[in-house]
Design goal:
about 120 residues; mainly alpha; 2 domains; about 75% helix; about 0% strand; extended
Length: about 120
């Protein structure tokens, strides 16, 4: 009996679907009402600005991924730029803490829909 070990890598298509799914789920559907309440009829301008920022972020990560191919993501680029020292450790923990805070925060506008399923 031979067991096949799956490859531990992500394709560009898979990464793109993760990014698009996050933006559509959190940004467009959950926050459209809140954005409309703040921006009024100019809500399309805020989405245009957010789209431009997301495009620039995607471009920078694509360039980093092409320059430093790694499965570690943003933290691998941080370690590559600053080394394996205190700065990398502190920023890594801040990255994880931010994720722990922002994750539940994004659920609030949707009324906790993922928790009800």
């Amino acid at each position: 009996m031979s067991t096949t070990v799956p490859k531990k890598q992500m394709t560009v298509i898979q990464a793109a679907f993760i990014g698009v799914g996050s933006m559509v789920g959190a940004g467009i559907f959950a926050l459209l009402g809140a954005a409309g309440a703040v921006a009024g009829s100019a809500v399309w301008v805020s989405f245009l600005i957010a789209g431009a920022i997301a495009g620039l972020q995607g471009y920078s990560f694509a360039k980093l991924g092409a320059t430093y191919p790694s499965g570690g993501g943003m933290l691998a680029y941080l370690a590559r730029g600053f080394g394996e020292g205190h700065v990398t450790g502190i920023v890594s923990w801040l990255f994880y803490v931010t994720g722990a805070i922002v994750g539940p925060w994004w659920r609030r506008p949707s009324g906790g829909m993922p928790a009800r399923s």
